[in-house]
User: Which sequence fits this backbone?
């Protein structure tokens, strides 16, 4: 009888934990967690994969765009606990057949016209596009989802500014 009760209690905890990790549009996140990020990304059709020995998450958006996600401003960065920020980063190959002045002009034009990410050339010379979302004061999962989806759509437009 005790084993049945214990098994039922464990099943209830597992169900409750799974429900807490699922997407709920009206739920307000005071901090970001890896499970909330993954549930939100899944809602927009993205596939996630943990990276070994790193808190980063590889994201493949529905449009094929690959990104790196990292929860930031955490009380414990190594375990991604108590995180107030979500960083999404996409790196692009720097074209060799396009003058750097055209690349810089395209990055500037993108930053002027698109509002869901900031493009730049990183210190190693790679073109990067980053979005940072904050949870300070709370954010609904619906808002989180919308921002991630808009970033994916905007990032898919980025190559048109630089390579064309």
Assistant:
């Amino acid at each position: 009888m005790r084993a049945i009760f214990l098994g039922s209690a464990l099943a209830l905890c597992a169900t409750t934990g799974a429900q807490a990790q699922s997407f709920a549009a009206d739920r307000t996140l005071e901090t970001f967690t890896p499970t909330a990020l993954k549930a939100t990304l899944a809602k927009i059709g993205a596939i996630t994969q943990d990276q070994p020995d790193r808190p980063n998450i590889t994201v493949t958006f529905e449009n094929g765009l690959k990104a790196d996600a990292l929860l930031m401003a955490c009380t414990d960065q190594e375990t991604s606990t108590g995180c107030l920020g979500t960083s999404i980063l996409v790196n692009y190959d720097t074209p060799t057949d396009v003058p750097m002045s055209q690349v810089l002009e395209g990055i500037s034009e993108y930053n002027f016209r698109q509002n869901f990410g900031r493009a730049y050339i990183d210190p190693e010379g790679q073109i990067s596009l980053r979005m940072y979302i904050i949870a300070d004061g709370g954010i609904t999962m619906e808002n989180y989802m919308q921002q991630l989806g808009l970033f994916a759509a905007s990032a898919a437009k980025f190559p048109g500014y630089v390579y064309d």
About this structure: Helices lie at 2-21, 34-43, 100-113, 141-162. Residues 141-162 form the longest helix (22 residues). Residues 1-20 have pLDDT under 50 and may be disordered.
